[in-house]
Amino acid sequence: MQSVLSGFFKLALASLLAGSLLSFFGITPRAVLDSMGVTAQDLHNGIISAFAWAAPRMVMGAVVILPIWLTTYLLMPPRG
């Protein structure tokens, strides 16, 4: 658990440093979106569409994968 928290802390610190550096040079999220020709609403709609596409496929995959994993886990010999 400590390594997971340490990893999250390092990731947060690196993100803070990168965001500060970008802010120093005047690069904002709005400027990045404008340079790509995308609005915040387009980005939001794209994320919603991606989730709507992925969610049913993930559930159907889980219907197949989870029973296989559970069977394999139960039939494995005991460790150590």
Notes on the protein architecture:
The chain has 80 residues and is mainly alpha-helical. The protein has two domains: 1-38, no CATH class; 39-80. Helices cover 84% and strands 0% of the residues. It is built from three helices and no strands. It is flat, with a radius of gyration of 21 Å. The protein starts with a helix and ends in a 5-residue tail after the last helix. The model has no long low-confidence stretch (mean pLDDT 94).
Structure summarized in a few sentences:
With 80 residues, the protein is mainly alpha-helical.
Provide the fold topology.
Elements (H helix, E strand, L loop, with lengths): L1 H23 L4 H8 L3 H36 L5
Helix amount:
over 70%
> What's the total number of strands?
0
Q: Could you give the order of the helices and strands?
A: HHH
Number of domains: 2
Beta-strand proportion: under 5%
Largest sheet: none
* Mean of pLDDT: 94
Class inferred from helices and paired strands: mainly alpha
- First and last CA, distance: 22 Å
Rough outline: flat
- What is the count of DSSP helices, taking H or I runs of 4+ residues? 3
Rg to the nearest angstrom? 21 Å
Unreliable runs, pLDDT <50, ≥5 residues? Answer: none
